[in-house]
Structure prediction request, 57 residues.
Amino acid sequence: MGSMKEHPRYNVVSLRISDEEREALDDFVVLTKRSVSQLMREAMELLLTKMERCERS
Prediction:
C-alpha cells in the first residue's frame, strides 16, 4: 500500500485565466521545471512574505 503523507493536501482551488495568462503559466512551468501547483504555492508564499514586510514597516 501507499505511504501516508505527513501533510496531505485535500483542498482544490480553481480559477479562470485568459489564454495569454495560460501561455505565461505554461512558460513558467517549462522554465522552472515546476508544476502549476508548486508555482502557485511559491507565488502565495512570496505574497505573504511581502504582506508581512509591509505590516512591519
About this structure: The helical segments are 19-32, 36-56. The chain has two helices and no strands.
